[in-house]
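A reminder from the course coordinator: this example appears on the midterm review sheet, so study it carefully.

Given structure:
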């Protein structure tokens, strides 16, 4: 087991009376590949938002490398090695692919990384001078993932990285995720069970804002309650 990099303690997030995330405590170690699954509305995206700093919890804490980051802005969390992608890709649409890569490497304060290799791997090399806003949807998602990877985060959070992608694009993403540094802890929210069972060594199941199960894929696949509410 690697060193613990990320920990949440009793995270609670309410929207009015509605409890979207209810006392979720999880710890993640270096190099761990975790999938977060569960029905629509289970609280998966809200959980990711609390960890990345897009949202702040009503109760509970988030620790990165032992440091309490609960009240830090998303930007400061990126600086500390926590980065993410969104369910709907978030790129600078009026800028070129190349400029998007440049911004990503600047924000993370890394040296102007040589992103041409990454662009090649991602199938974006011929699009470097293309405005991100006119890329096909799949490539926009691929670009967003590339931007997150450029910051070489310690923890990478991905919200449905393969949703809406065609088979070829999906394979590209899976291969890319498998090629990432073995020290990076990757947490992927995903509905595609082929992708989940290919990349994850641990599966966390959420249901109605709560943790329903947490374990290795073989165990989760057999879990009675999980099969009932989600896997079917
Ligand atoms: N800003 C918000 N205001 C009010 N309710 C919200 C807000 N964001 C999320 N919710 C509600 O919280 C619940 C959890 O939403 P969340 O987006 O975390 O689910 P999810 O597990 O990511 O679902 P999906 O698989 O459909 O993406 C849902 O019932 C949703 O309607
Ligand atoms: Mg979601």
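Designed residues:
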């Amino acid at each position: 087991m690697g060193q613990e990099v990320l920990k949440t303690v009793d995270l609670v997030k309410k929207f009015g009376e509605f409890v979207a995330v209810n006392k979720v405590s999880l710890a993640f170690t270096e190099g761990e590949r975790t999938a977060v699954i569960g029905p629509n509305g289970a609280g998966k995206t809200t959980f990711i938002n609390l960890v990345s700093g897009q949202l702040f919890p009503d109760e509970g804490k988030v620790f990165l490398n032992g440091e309490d980051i609960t009240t830090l802005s998303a930007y400061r969390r990126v600086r500390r090695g926590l980065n993410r992608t969104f369910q709907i890709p978030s790129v600078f649409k009026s800028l070129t692919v190349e400029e998007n890569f440049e911004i990503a490497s600047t924000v993370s304060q890394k040296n102007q990384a040589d992103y041409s290799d990454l662009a090649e791997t991602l199938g974006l090399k011929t699009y470097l001078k293309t405005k991100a806003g006119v890329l096909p949807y799949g490539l926009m998602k691929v670009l967003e993932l590339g931007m997150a990877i450029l910051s070489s985060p310690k923890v990478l959070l991905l919200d449905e990285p393969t949703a809406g992608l065609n088979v070829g694009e999906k394979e590209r993403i899976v291969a890319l995720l498998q090629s990432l540094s073995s020290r990076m802890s990757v947490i992927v929210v995903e509905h595609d069970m082929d992708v989940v069972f290919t990349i994850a060594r641990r599966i966390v199941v959420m249901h109605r804002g709560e943790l329903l199960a947490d374990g290795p894929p073989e165990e989760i696949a057999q879990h009675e309650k999980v099969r009932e509410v989600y896997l079917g």
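Strands lie at 4-15, 18-29, 33-37, 59-64, 67-68, 82-84, 155-159, 185-189, 202-207, 210-215. Residues 15, 20, 38, 40-46, 87 surround adenosine-5'-triphosphate (ligand 1) (CB under 6 Å).
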